[in-house]
Amino acid sequence: MKKFILSVFLVTMCLVSMAQVRDMQRPQGVVYGEVERAIPEWSQIAEPFVATDIYGNTVDLGAILESGKSVVIDYSCCWCEPCWNVHSSGVLEAVDAMEDVQVIWVEIEEDNTIEQIYGNSGTTMSTISWGDWTVTPNGEPIEYPIIDNRDCLSTCMSLYEGYVPSIYFIAPNGFYCDIYGKSFGLYPSNPVVTVSNIEKLIEEYPRPGVAPAISLNGSESAYLGMPADFDVTIASYDPVTSIEWTLEGATPPTATGEEVSCIWTENGVFTVTVAVSNDFGTTTESLEVEVYSMNNPLTYTDGPWEINMGTGYSGYTVMWAAMFPANVVKTVNTIDWVQMYFNAEAPGQYEAMIYQGGDNAPDELIGSKTLHLNSETSGYVEFSFSEPIQFNNKKNLWVVMRSSLAWPMSAATFCGDRNGGWLCIDGSYWNNILDYGQNLTWMLRCGVNGILGTTTLDASHTLAYPNPSSGIVYVEADNLQYVEVVDNTGRVLMTETSNVVNISGLPNGVYFLRIVTSNGSSVQSVVKE
């Protein structure tokens, strides 16, 4: 049996003590470096700080940048264990030894004491210290500046999310980005803050007179007849002059802007392309998207089974989940059962829970079922509810499993959609298994009722007239459920449950009617004049 330990110590450290200073939950962000290559989000620093370090020396950030050096700044707190892990790794000393890079360490806890920086620990949260921050892991004096002044945080506030450690790379021209990823504490052998990654950033930070660097963001899969969203991250010193999208086989076929939404009405594999220009050139990037009908049962993968994951300890409760976005389940109204892939070597008690709402964590519990599974059971196990569970199909649907076993979580190879791999180990903080370098998807599925539009109807089965129209459009279709009016960006402008659609209040132009029946759906264009 394949097993992977999410060590209680390491996972708790990463999920819980990517320690927070202000906020309750760290939003999803771009991980840059050897863990997951992407264009980072760049911003301009505010006024460079001038501060005094703990030895009385003046640290002038602006002067350092003007000298042509890049800066790596580590905002930390003495009470923060992940901050200490960074310090103890020796990576800051390695980066500081680079010829054109200056490391600066800043303590940003308002209620700390200078004694904490020297390793003198108290008994309260704000007075705890993990060790002597003034010496290297080898016991030698730290050579980079150590500052005890929270005000220095104002320089990088535009990207700060309220957590420590927060580590930023600042280029000589004042552009900066976040370079501390969630994977650092879990995989110290493959950290995001490395000399090689700093070298890449020195080569790639936005400069005048060059074409933009870009990263196309979006899912590699989309559901038939449902809006699919894409956006582009741009790094450009000079003003961007145009952002042009080509959406093969989709409606609309082209678009502009940093974000776009489109709809496909045929199954297949299609190419999404974005071209971003400034006065010095154009950069293009493409993504292949597989379009398919929504399944019943809902699932992100049917396997084959790849591995079982867990803490390695029984009695330590973990939860794992698949989240189906609202735009996917908008035609679903009840859920009848949940199936979980069960490996016979992990017997014990499992609980299936249904939640509605929440983007990065499940929100409202609306139903659950508990089973005790023994070693004679294997394969998919069904958790049947005594009555169908109704949910709000305008909210995200979460299928959550919970167990206190050592190896409860069965997974298959990553399906291409990160929503199939949510994970929680502390009872409150949710993350994604991809953020730990594991390209996996949980083997979960659920049976639903009220699926509408899973079949694409031939246009001959529906009729919309008159076309063109100055206001009223009549729709003829058997077993009509509703009609959506969609603009050329994929935005739903109105929903009508009768066969009379009034578009008189819309500007003249081309619109798309998504006609949904109990037998399927179709999309037809209509001209408003």
Characteristics of this structure?
529 residues, globular, Immunoglobulin-like, six-stranded antiparallel sheet, Jelly Rolls, 8% helix, mainly beta, six-stranded mixed sheet
Walk me through what this model shows.
It is a single chain. The protein is mostly beta strands and 529 residues long. Helix content is 8%, strand content 42%. It folds into four domains: 31-204, Glutaredoxin (3-Layer(aba) Sandwich); 213-291, Sandwich (Immunoglobulin-like), CATH 2.60.40.10; 298-449, Jelly Rolls (Sandwich), CATH 2.60.120; 459-528, Sandwich (Immunoglobulin-like). It has a six-stranded mixed beta sheet with strand order 2-9-8-5-6-7. A six-stranded antiparallel beta sheet has the order 24-23-26-21-28-29, with no helix packed on it. It is globular. It starts with a strand and ends with a strand.
Q: Which helices and strands appear, and what pairs or packs with what?
A:
Elements: E1 3-5, H1 8-16, E2 43-44, E3 50-52, E4 58-60, H2 61-66, E5 70-76, H3 81-89, H4 91-96, E6 101-107, H5 114-117, E7 146-148, E8 166-170, E9 175-178, H6 195-204, E10 213-218, E11 221-223, E12 228-235, E13 240-247, E14 250-251, E15 254-256, E16 259-264, E17 268-278, E18 281-292, E19 298-299, E20 305-310, E21 318-324, E22 334-342, E23 348-356, E24 364-373, E25 379-390, E26 397-403, E27 409-413, E28 422-424, E29 430-432, E30 440-442, E31 444-449, E32 462-465, E33 472-477, E34 480-486, E35 492-496, E36 500-502, E37 509-517, E38 520-528
**Main beta-sheet annotation:** 6 strands, mixed
Helix-residue proportion:
under 10%
Low-confidence stretches: 7-37, 182-191, 451-459
Strand order of the largest sheet: 2-9-8-5-6-7
Give the N-terminus to C-terminus distance in angstroms.
65 Å
The structural domain count equals: 4
Count of helical stretches: 6
Structural class: mainly beta
Number of strands: 38
Instruction: Just name the CATH architecture of the largest domain.
Output: 3-Layer(aba) Sandwich
Do you know the CATH topology of the largest domain?
A: Glutaredoxin
- For the record, what CATH class of the largest domain applies? Alpha Beta
Task: Give the averaged pLDDT, no decimals.
Answer: 82
Radius of gyration using CA atoms only: 27 Å
Sheet-strand content, in percent, reads: 35-45%
Q: Tell me the CATH superfamily of the largest domain.
A: Glutaredoxin
The best one-word shape is globular
